[in-house]
Specification:
Elements lengths: L8 H30 L11 H6 L5 H16 L12 H26 L2 H6 L20 H20 L5 H18 L8 H6 L3 H4 L3 H10 L10 H6 L6 H10 L6 E6 L14 H4 L13 H13 L4 E8 L2 E8 L3 H4 L5 H18 L3 E4 L6 H4 L3 H6 L6 E3 L2 H9 L8 E5 L4 H12 L3 E4 L2 H11 L6 E3 L7 E4 L5 H6 L5 E4 L13 E2 L4 E3 L18 E3 H12 L13 H10 L3 E2 L3 H4 L3
Helix pairs in contact: 1-3, 1-7, 4-6, 4-7, 10-12, 19-20, 19-23, 19-24
C-alpha cells in the first residue's frame, strides 16, 4: 500500500489493527463493569446473569471475521486500487459525511425492519435478549446481521476508495469511531454531561448517549437510530423519557450495605476478575495455558501491586434490598506469605475498613488471607484500633465451622484433623468433641495443642499415625506424604481458605466451606475463585447473613458467634449446603 515497490502496509497493519480493536473493546468492557459495580451512573439497575455472559462470550469473533473480509477484498481488488496513502484529510471528511447521510439513514430503516415480528423473531431478538446491556452486547448478533452491518458500514470505505480519497487513517478512524460509539451506547452507565448539550444544542441530534440507546433495549419500539438521533426526531420514534432518564442516571450513586474484602490469588487471577475477561470470570478457576502469552501484562500488574495497595470494587449484587459489593486488595497470595509485606497489607485492609465506615457500610467480611492470625489476629486488630467502629467486621469463622460440620457424613464417629491449626480448626475440634466424635491427629504437636486448648477428656482427642481414618478435615500445611498415605475412598474436607492440591483419584474432595446461593440474589455472573457458579464461600455469605439479621456485634479476633444460630439463619435466608459431585456418590 505504500509505494510501487515498497512493502504492502496492509499485511503489516492488519494484525496490529485487529489487536487494537480487541484492546479497545476490552477497555470498554472493564470500564463498564467497574462503573456498574460502583453503582455510579447506572442506567438499568437489573441483574446480569451467566446466561447472558455465555451468549456474549464470543464477542471478538466479529473482529476476526471483519479482518478476514478485509483480507478477501484486498486480494480481489487490483493492487493499484488498494495502494492507499497514510493520510488524506478530504477522504476522512467524506467518510464522516457519508456515514451521517446514507449509513445512518439506511441503518434507521433497517433497524425498524428488524423489529418487524418476522425478522425480529428470526434474527434481532438474539441481540435484544440482553435487557441489561454491556459493551459486548453491541456486537452480539446472528451471522446474517453481521454480514448486513458490514455491507452497510462499508459504504463510506468503498465510496472513498472508488473516488480516490481513501487512506489508511480514514479507515482506522472510521472503524474505531464505530467501535467507540457501539460500546458507548451499550455500556449501561451514563457519563455524558448535560452541559455539552447546553453548550451546543444541535449535538443532541448528532450524538446519542448510553441512556438514549438503553431505552431502545427496554422499550423496543423507540430510539432506533444508530449513533445520531436525528432520524428518531424526524420520524417521531424518539422516546419522550430520553432526557429525563439521562438526567436521573447522571445523579444516580449508591453506597453498599455489605462489602466482602478479598484479594488476588495467583499471578493470573487478575485476568479472572469480573472486570477483566468475562469468559474466564464466569467459570471456576482452572489452569489456562494461553494466559502465559500475556506474561508482559502479568509482570506489569505484579509490579503495580508491590507499589499500590488501595482496594477497588470488582462487582455488585443485590439481595433482599441489601446492596452488596466485593472489593479487592491488590495483593497476591504469595505476598501474604512474606512477613515483610504484612505491615503494608494490614494497612491496606485497615484503610478499606475505614473507607467502608465512611460510606455507611453495615458489614464488611474478610475473605481468604485477609483474616490471618499473624497478619491481623483474624481482623481483631482493627477493632482494637477503632473501638467505636460502626461497620461490623466479620471473619465468617462460625459459618465456616457450621458448613464443615454439616459436610461430615451422618453416623461418623471418628475424624482425622491435620494441617495448620487456625481459629476455625480449634472451633471445629471443640464442636466435634461436643458431638462425641473422636478427633485424631497425625502429629504429636497438634495433639498437645488441641488437648490443652479444649481441656478434652481422655479419648476425645487421640494421637494416631496409622492413617486408617476415612474422614479427613484438612487445612493449609497438608503434606504430599500425608495425602498419599490416606486409605482409598478417603473424604477430604478442607477447613482452610484454599483447597488442597488433589493428588488422589481414588479419594473424594469437598469444596472449601461454601454454600449455594438463593435465586433471589441478583447480578451474579462470575465465579468466586475455584467454586462453581452461584456458589459463595462461607466467609462471604457470613457477612451477608450478619447484615440481613441486623446483628450488632463483630465476629473477628478470637470471638465467634453461635454456630447453630448462624447456620439456622443462613438456611432461613435461602442458602443451601453444597457437596462436591464426587463426595455425593458415597452418600
Amino acid at each position: 500500500m505504500f509505494g510501487e515497490e515498497g512493502t504492502d502496509l496492509f499485511y503489516i497493519l492488519v494484525f496490529p489493527f485487529l489487536l487494537w480493536r480487541m484492546l479497545h473493546n476490552q477497555i470498554w468492557i472493564s470500564l463498564s463493569r467497574y462503573q456498574t459495580a460502583k453503582g455510579k451512573g447506572t442506567i438499568v439497575d437489573k441483574g446480569l446473569e451467566f446466561e447472558q455472559v455465555d451468549r456474549e462470550r464470543d464477542w471478538d469473533d466479529q473482529i476476526i471475521f471483519n479482518g478476514i473480509l478485509f483480507y478477501i477484498v484486498r486480494c480481489v481488488l487490483p493492487k493499484a486500487q488498494t495502494d492507499l496513502p497514510i493520510w488524506r484529510g478530504n477522504g476522512l471528511v467524506i467518510t464522516m459525511l457519508l456515514h451521517a447521510g446514507p449509513v445512518e439513514y439506511l441503518y434507521y430503516w433497517l433497524h425498524r425492519a428488524l423489529h418487524h415480528h418476522f425478522l425480529y423473531s428470526r434474527y434481532h431478538s438474539h441481540h435484544h435478549s440482553s435487557i441489561v446491556t454491556e459493551p459486548i452486547t453491541s456486537v452480539t448478533h446472528p451471522f446474517a446481521e453481521h454480514i448486513t452491518y458490514f455491507m452497510l458500514f462499508a459504504i463510506p470505505m468503498v465510496a472513498t476508495l472508488l473516488i480516490g480519497t481513501a487512506s489508511i487513517s480514514s479507515y482506522f478512524v472510521y472503524i474505531t469511531y464505530i467501535d467507540f460509539m457501539n460500546n458507548l451506547g451499550h455500556c449501561n452507565f451514563e457519563f455524558i454531561p448535560n452541559w455539552i448539550f447546553s453548550l451546543f444544542p444541535p449535538l443532541k441530534y448528532l450524538m446519542y448517549t448510553p441512556s438514549y440507546h438503553s431505552l431502545h433495549h427496554t422499550q423496543f419500539r423507540t430510539n432506533y437510530s444508530l449513533f445520531m438521533p436525528i432520524y428518531d426526531y424526524i420520524y417521531g420514534t424518539m422516546d419522550k423519557s430520553s432526557d429525563t432518564l439521562h438526567e436521573s442516571s447522571l445523579r444516580k450513586e449508591e453506597s453498599p450495605d455489605v462489602v466482602h474484602l478479598t484479594h488476588l490469588t495467583t499471578t493470573k487471577s487478575i485476568y479472572r476478575l469480573p472486570l477483566a475477561f468475562a469468559s474466564l470470570a464466569s467459570n471456576p478457576h482452572t489452569s489456562t495455558w494461553y494466559l502465559w502469552l500475556l506474561w508482559p501484562v502479568t509482570l506489569w500488574s505484579l509490579m503495580l501491586t508491590w507499589i499500590f495497595g488501595r482496594s477497588f470494587v470488582i462487582e455488585r449484587q443485590r439481595f433482599d434490598k441489601h446492596r452488596l459489593q466485593t472489593w479487592v486488595i491488590p495483593k497476591y497470595s504469595l505476598q501474604y506469605l512474606l512477613s515483610w509485606q504484612n505491615e503494608a497489607i494490614s494497612r491496606a485492609i485497615g484503610d478499606a475498613i475505614l473507607e467502608a465506615e465512611q460510606m455507611g457500610v453495615k458489614v464488611i467480611s474478610l475473605g481468604l488471607f485477609n483474616q490471618g492470625e499473624g497478619l491481623n489476629n483474624y481482623g481483631g486488630i482493627y477493632i482494637q484500633r477503632n473501638p467505636r467502629l460502626k461497620v461490623k467486621v466479620v471473619d465468617g469463622s462460625s459459618l465456616a465451622v457450621a458448613v464443615i460440620l454439616n459436610s461430615i457424613p451422618k453416623g461418623t464417629t471418628q475424624v482425622l484433623l491435620t494441617g495448620n491449626l487456625t481459629k476455625v480448626a480449634y472451633a471445629l475440634a471443640f464442636s466435634l468433641c461436643q458431638r462425641d466424635i473422636q478427633l485424631v491427629t497425625l502429629q504429636q504437636a497438634e495433639y498437645l495443642k488441641l488437648t490443652k486448648s479444649l481441656n478434652a477428656t481422655e479419648g476425645k482427642v487421640v494421637h494416631d499415625s496409622s492413617y486408617a481414618q476415612k474422614i479427613w478435615l484438612v487445612g493449609d500445611g497438608l503434606s504430599k506424604k500425608e495425602q498419599l498415605s490416606a486409605p482409598k475412598g478417603t473424604i477430604f474436607v478442607p477447613f482452610s481458605q484454599f483447597p488442597p492440591k488433589q493428588l488422589r483419584r481414588d479419594c473424594f474432595y469437598h469444596y472449601t466451606p461454601a454454600m449455594k446461593i438463593p435465586k433471589s440474589l441478583e447480578n451474579v455472573y462470575s465465579c468466586e475463585n475455584w467454586l462453581p457458579r452461584r456458589v459463595m464461600s462461607a466467609w462471604r455469605i457470613a457477612g451477608i447473613v450478619h447484615a440481613l439479621e441486623g446483628w450488632n456485634e463483630h465476629e473477628c479476633g478470637y470471638t465467634m458467634s453461635s454456630i447453630d444460630k448462624v447456620w439456622q439463619a443462613t438456611l432461613r435466608h435461602g442458602f443451601q449446603p453444597l457437596i462436591s459431585k464426587e463426595a455425593a456418590k458415597i452418600d
